[in-house]
Write a structure and sequence with these properties.
The chain is an alpha+beta fold. Helices cover about 35% and strands about 20% of the residues. It has eight helices and six strands. Helix 2 runs antiparallel to helix 5. The longest helix is centred in the middle third of the chain and has 18 residues. The protein starts with 14 loop residues before the first helix and ends in a 6-residue tail after the last helix. The structure holds flavin mononucleotide. Flavin mononucleotide binds next to strand 5.
Length: about 190
């Protein structure tokens, strides 16, 4: 679902990337189908990772479950106005060491897995908004996480609803123009 105008690009992109954005206005009644949820997992599972180490780990919770409520209890206040409306909250964790050896690219690999999940969600008419705004220590304690499991983001997945009953301020932020720095700023060197 898109409400934001297509992302402005100098050449056309594939629809899933051109239309992707991160709303806060989720339909609080929407339930993810089992197929959609499985597809998100498959998209993450087939992401590339350094040495194919696959260090991405997920805690997946549907709205209305005790696990969902536990995740919500760790969110920073600024995320509480919208995130509890998501159909699913996913804690994305990086396994940063295995058998006593550090997995140097674990967080990078996790980011790629979440990116793939996000694109698959977009192709299924779902929306994703990620959150760094949570209390990692509280989450670690709540789920008794092993020291080498690092919670990096909480991922909200659901269906965008332009008429969602969210605080007006959040609706306005969803409607505000989104932007990016120019390609020329991103390419430190372009020698082609
Ligand atoms: C690692 C990460 C942490 C984020 N943390 C939050 C957050 O705590 N709360 C929030 O509302 N959005 C959060 N966001 C969403 C970003 O603000 C959003 O992706 C960015 O503004 C670009 O907007 P777009 O995704 O619509 O293009 C986060 C995104 C990422 C990737």
């Amino acid at each position: 679902m898109t409400a934001s105008p297509r992302n402005e690009t100098s050449v056309p992109l594939t629809d899933q990337l051109a239309d992707r954005w991160s709303p806060r206005s989720f339909d609080a009644d929407y339930v993810l189908s089992p197929d959609d949820l499985t597809a998100l997992g498959e998209a993450a599972r087939w992401a590339p990772s350094a040495n194919n180490a696959q260090p991405a780990r997920f805690i997946v919770a549907g709205r209305g479950t005790p696990t969902f409520d536990t995740i919500v209890s760790t969110l920073r206040r600024f995320n509480l106005g919208w995130a509890p409306r998501a159909a699913v909250l996913i804690v994305a964790l990086a396994e940063t060491a295995r058998d006593g050896q550090p997995l140097r690219w674990a967080e990078y690999d996790l980011g790629q897995a979440v990116a793939h999940l996000t694109v698959e969600a977009q192709s299924r008419g779902l929306s994703v908004r990620q959150m760094g705004g949570f209390d990692a220590d509280a989450l670690r304690a709540a789920f008794a996480l092993a020291p080498d499991l690092v919670p990096v983001v909480v991922v909200a997945v659901g269906r965008y609803d332009a008429a969602a009953d969210v605080p007006a301020e959040l609706r306005e932020r969803d409607a505000a123009p989104r932007g990016r720095r120019g390609l020329d700023e991103m390419a430190l060197i372009l020698d082609v």
